[in-house]
Amino acid sequence: MGIDTHRDQINLSRWLIEQERNHGRIPGSLRLLIEQVARACQRISRAVSRAASSGVLGSLGSENIQGEVQKKLDVIANDVLLQANEWGGHLAAMASEELETIHTIPHRFPRGEYLLMFDPLDGSSNIDVNVTIGTIFSVLHLAEGAANVGPEHFLQPGRKQVAAGYCTYGPQTTLVLTVGHGVAEFTLDFDEGGFVLSRDHVQIPRTTHEFSINMSNMRHWAPPVRRYIDECLAGSLGPRGNDFNMRWVGSMVADVHRVLSRGGVFLYPWDAREPDRAGKLRLMYEANPMALLVEQAGGMAIAGTARILDIEPTGLHQRAAVMLGSTEEVALLQRYHAEQDPHSHTTIG
Ligand code: P6P
Prior knowledge:
Blueprint: H1 12-21, H2 28-49, E1 59-63, E2 69-71, H3 72-85, E3 91-96, E4 103-104, E5 114-122, E6 133-141, E7 163-169, E8 173-178, E9 183-189, E10 194-199, E11 210-212, H4 223-234, E12 245-246, H5 252-262, E13 265-268, E14 281-282, H6 283-296, E15 300-302, E16 319-320, E17 322-325, H7 327-339
Parallel strand pairs: 3-5, 11-12, 11-13
Antiparallel strand pairs: 1-2, 3-4, 5-6, 6-7, 7-8, 8-9, 9-10, 13-17, 14-16, 15-17
Helix pairs in contact: 2-3, 4-7
The structure holds 6-O-phosphono-alpha-D-fructofuranose (P6P).
Residues 122-123, 125, 214, 250-252, 255, 268, 280 line the site of 6-O-phosphono-alpha-D-fructofuranose.
């Protein structure tokens, strides 16, 4: 007897309508915005899966505003998100890792109450080697009465996000989303032609024996991170009394999705080679959305001693140190940062 995999499937639209109608958790305008973002991710997923055959792998030979080599798919993904979201009437403006300043809504379209930020294609150094990459997005409310929206309106702490999520483009195309009441995971179903609920009420295990960090940077870490990783590496004979496993995909969406799926701790810490830079990852459209998802799933997300969601932003593209995942491990990291010699390096946050 065949297994009816489509019986009672809840698709993204139904889940969002239930959040709006049954729980009064989101207004219709936010529901429609999220649906537009999801449809854009569907289009990006198709572009990624056809990249080789359509000749859009590789670099453009240009750099983005971060001074990073721009991949063809970075620009394609960015354009898909801008075009999909500028006409809906839900947004006042958008900000992207690929754009130096904000993208205001053209006058021919109505303006809305939300601000959308995104990293259109995170992990793009993995595109050409067929490793999971993804889109990360964050939604804020435009301040009441704001007339001409500017970059300053985006500079809100992560705890103010009204929605956040990411979409992985890997063996499956998976959308992971929070609207502030837990985390739900949707998987792109080609028969359905859209995202269907694959996991609701996602919870990160409080404990883990798996850490995720780029070990090649070890000699450049601040003492608290070095102490934590050294103890993990010491294994069952060391102070932790357990052996630890390590995973590092080098694509934040892939590494964070693993943490959300089975627990773990993900770190991209401050690096002594760039002492004036808090970290590599960007606060507004990488650290903040991932931190909200992790906290909504029962985990923790810190930048050192500070909670990531409490960092007061000063720039659209500012960076942050990121340590997130299973609560017991992140709490230990936070303690080590609090204990560190105040005269040693102090990381921002
Ligand atoms: P590294 C991808 O370029 C990215 O921004 C994140 O997705 C990822 O976690 C990190 O950088 C990987 O950095 O230094 O290991 O290549």
